[in-house]
Every structure is written in structure tokens, then in C-alpha cells.
Amino acid sequence: MTDLLKKRFDVARWIAKEIAGTLEGEERASLERWRGESPLHESEYGETRAYLLSREAPTRAERQMVKDEWRKFERARHGKRFTRRAVARYAALFVLPLCVAGYLWYAAPGRSGLPAADGTGIVPGGGKAVLILANGQSVELKDEKGLLVDTTGRVVVPAGERGVYRQIAARADSLAEEKYNTLVVPRGGEFFMELPDGTRVWLNSESKLYFPLRFKGVRRDVKLEGEGYFEVMPDSTAPFHVFVNGADLRVLGTSFNVTAYRGRTIATLVEGRVCLTHGGESVLMLPGVQAEVLPGSGGIRTREVNVKEFVLWKDGIFYFEGADLATIMERLARWYDVNVNFDDEELGKLRFSVEMKRYEHIQDLLTKIEKTRKVRFRIEGREIRVGVYREPGS
Prior knowledge:
By secondary structure, this protein is α+β, with helices and mostly antiparallel strands. It folds into three domains: 102 residues, no CATH class; 184 residues, Sandwich (Jelly Rolls), CATH 2.60.120.1440; 73 residues, Phage tail protein beta-alpha-beta fold (3-Layer(bab) Sandwich). The chain contains eight helices and 23 strands. The strands form three sheets. A six-stranded mixed beta barrel has the order 1-6-9-10-8-7. Strands 20-23-22 form a three-stranded mixed beta sheet, covered by helices on one side. Strands 19-21 form a two-stranded antiparallel sheet. Helix 1 runs parallel beside helix 5 and helix 4 runs antiparallel to helix 5. It is globular. About 7% of the residues have low confidence.
């Protein structure tokens, strides 16, 4: 096999394994290096992924035809010089289908407990929230045309799949005393907002943010429940504070993610500096560092992490790198608004690496995990049951 053809075979195989959720270690690094070598490679990567994802499972006759044609090519190439175009053509015609057969479709029809993608009422989340004004009035926010202006002079602007809550102006009489609004994002929702100082906040499903009509004095304070990603507007005269589960995150201007579900508090720093304080302990965080307030003791533990896993949700992507299944399913449950039950709690400790757009069908991500032959999913109404994978007939 020519070096060029072998390279095309390897690239196709890596991409197929990436889609199947089984690409790891040096192979993943090799694919990333190849993609970065030229814009042409990046374009070929996108086309190959689209090709693989669009294919149906090949039949036995189709797989045999591919093998027969490949043998013909092997015989024909001896003593001949093939152009780059010819090699690429054969790779596309014969190598890619083999990769599909080998990595994406080894689970024969009927093995999975998952219905067709459009066979359930489970749909991805989207931009929605409820704004509870300081005067107690509630305003439902959705992605819709036009503007919604509340009594304090704020306006809601639709922005694609995510709503935007942005201040226009505040009347003088509304600023006489410090008043707080609350933005509530339900299960199956997400929302983007801009605070009065220009700070940008992305709120994930099942989250709440308490914020003032305007920031006054020498500090800017908000309170978070759930998960939020912050891009703080720098202001050296007024530090920005996020209060969550009794912890205080103090920043001057930075980008970071905070997760606070079920009593856990985890902060992940992308840029800048953050000082996390809980009880009598404080930790100065640097980019790429994650700090967690330990349940029970209240101490703070830090570790270096790949920040992509914890912040790509704001860009519409599920990204899990060696994450335990319990964590993966917890995130899916909030976004798709479903209940998850494990037949065996030990299954929740299994670890997987998988990536998918948040606006795709939930079956797409579950199928990628199933192809590892470690677990099996069954969708029953709005409940997902997780069981041990068993070979057909066993």
C-alpha cells in the first residue's frame, strides 16, 4: 500500500472511531495534528465526517463488493504510478465504507434499546427562562421576535437558539434602593444575559441568577444556583463577586465556569485570576485550574483540567473526556428534561469520552456510548434506563 493511501486509510479510520466515541490517546493526537497541517486537511475532515454520518449500515453484499473492488485495485496498482487524486478516489470509494462497517455499524439492527431518532417525545433544550422582577412580577422569556420591556427599562432580545436579557436603561426612581431581579432557567433550558455592567453570563439548565438592577458602590455582587459561565467586565475599582453555596468567587476581569448542583461547588478558570474563598480557606486560581469545595469538610481542592470539558456547553457542545457515566447522564437529564435510572449503580462509574452538539437527538449520543459494548440504554417515555450490555442471544 502506498504511503499516501495508508495515510488516507488511517485518517478515515480515526474519523470513524471519533464518531463512534472510541478514538483515544495517540490516535486522537495524530488526527488533530493532521487536521492542523493545512486548511485542505480541515476541509477533508469535515467532508469525511459528513460522509460517514450520512451512510446507512452496509449490507453483507455491499461489504463483499467493497472487498472485491479493493482486491482489484491492489492487483491493478502493481507496476503503476497512481496520482494523488486517484489514491484519494479509491480511499473514498473503498476505504471509508470499510471504516463505516468496522467502527460505526458493528451493532446489528435490533441490538439497541433505542428507538429511531424521531420516535420519542424527547427533544433538545433551548433558550427559555423566567424573569422574576424586583417588584414580584414574572415575565416568561422565549426565543421570539420583538422586544419585551419590563417596568425597570430592561429589554429582552432574541438571539437564535438562546434568548438574551440586556439592560437598556433604568429609571431614576428604580435606583433609589438596591433591588434584585432573578433569572430562572428550567430543566431543558439555557439563557444568555448581559448584566448592568456589561458582564456576559451564560446560564445552563436548572439554574438561577440573582442580580441587582444596577451595581452600586465598590463591589459587584451576584448569587448563582446551578451552572453559569461568566465573562466579567474589568473594573479595578469594583471587584466582581459570585456567591454560590456559601463560597465567594472574587474577580476583577476574567472568564470562568461555576457549577453548583446538588450541594457541590466547582469553579473552572479559563482566563484571568479568581480567588475562591470558603470558610476560612482561600485559593488563588490560575487559568486551566479547577477548584472544588469538598462536601463535608468544606476544604478546597484544586487540579489542572482540560477546560473544554467544562465550558463547551455554552457553545452548544457536549464534550466529555473520560467522564463517568453518572455525570454524563446527569447532564443529559437536565438538558433533555428526562429521568435516568441505572439497573446497577456500578455502571455509573464507567468512563467514556464522547462529543456531540447539544441540539442533536439524544439517541445520537447514547448510540455512540452503546457502541463501546459496555452499557445498553432503553428509552421508556421520558425515562432512560441504563443496563449492562449483553451480546445478542446471551
